[in-house]
Specification:
Bound molecules: adenosine-5'-diphosphate, magnesium ion
CATH topology: Heat Shock Protein 90
CATH class: Alpha Beta
Radius of gyration: 24 Å
Number of strands: 7
Order of helices and strands: HHHEHEEHEEHEE
Oligomer: single chain
Strand content: 15-25%
Number of helices: 6
CATH architecture: 2-Layer Sandwich
Shape: elongated
Number of domains: 1
């Protein structure tokens, strides 16, 4: 009698362990899918970020070429200036790619990192795409705290939130569209808020948006961005990711305990 009870208990324990292992595997697979989906979103950002500089590169030497064709004299200074311009544009393009590569490197080490630095690399990736749609990006830094965790994942969360806001601002044809990011400290937490004026989240309950594959009224939605963002903030950084609506748009809060 006693022995069977112990056996039952051991069997139960084994099955629980098995199920936990299975669900962990599922999480891993979902996370991989999420990464792939956001790779697609990122590539979209990059192509925007590169279009303008490529056009500039195309035109830098046009005036010089024109002069040569017309048999006019070309000033050395003019050539040097064109080369300098070329250098600064290609540096910008190469910085974008570096930031991009950083996000997808499997750097699995938690580090201390500076929020502002990550925000800068995020801006390097999204700014052209926002500008193309006249979307203003305001960054209000009341504190420049350090965080501990995977810095690339943190940036990925910001990019997901920015891209979502951008999607709504564009599809709803909002006038004077903006995205505002605010960073401050509150008690023992570091708080980053991301808000927009796109009219808010139209699903109820709002929490649904964090479910894997939940996407609403989008042509190419994967429904994975917010799911992944929540995993990153809550599982990997022991923080909280919350969504709500304010009067004219959505309001996302990333709350991370200090140290
Ligand atoms: N800033 C926002 N304003 C309004 N709705 C939003 C906002 N951010 C997210 N949502 C809603 O949450 C859904 C899920 O977002 P996400 O997980 O990133 O998937 P996807 O962007 O692929 O649809 C979106 O389809 C959208 O309906
Ligand atoms: Mg999204």
């Amino acid at each position: 009698m006693r022995q069977t009870k112990i056996d039952d208990f051991l069997e139960l324990e084994r099955r629980i362990r098995e199920e936990v292992e299975k669900s962990r595997e599922k999480d891993k697979i979902l996370f991989q899918q999420a990464k792939l989906a956001s790779l697609g979103e990122m590539l979209g950002n990059i192509s925007h970020q590169w279009r303008q500089p490529l056009m500039e590169i195309n035109s830098i030497f046009l005036p010089i070429e024109g002069k040569i064709i017309l048999g006019k004299k070309v000033d050395n200074n003019e050539i040097i200036q064109a080369i300098e311009k070329l250098n600064s544009i290609t540096k910008f393009m190469s910085d974008t790619i570096d930031d991009f590569r950083d996000f997808f490197s499997n750097n699995k080490e938690k580090n201390r990192f500076n929020i502002l630095e990550q925000i800068n690399s995020v801006v390097n990736i999204v700014s052209a795409g926002l500008k193309a749609h006249s979307i203003r990006l305001d960054i209000i830094l009341k504190k420049n705290p350090e965080l501990f965790g995977y810095k690339n994942e943190f940036s990925q969360v910001l990019i997901n939130l920015i891209n979502n806001a951008k999607d709504e601002l564009i599809s709803r044809k909002i006038k004077d569209p903006y995205i505002k990011i605010t960073i401050f400290e509150e008690k023992n937490n570091i708080v980053v808020t991301i808000e927009d004026n796109a009219g808010g989240i139209k699903v109820s309950p709002i929490e649904t948006i964090f479910e894997p594959f939940f996407t609403y009224q989008k042509h190419n939605g994967s429904g994975i961005g917010l799911f992944m963002s929540k995993l990153i903030i809550e599982k990997n950084m022991e923080g909280k990711l919350k969504a709500s609506n304010k009067d004219d748009g959505a309001f996302f809060e990333i709350i991370i305990p200090k140290n």
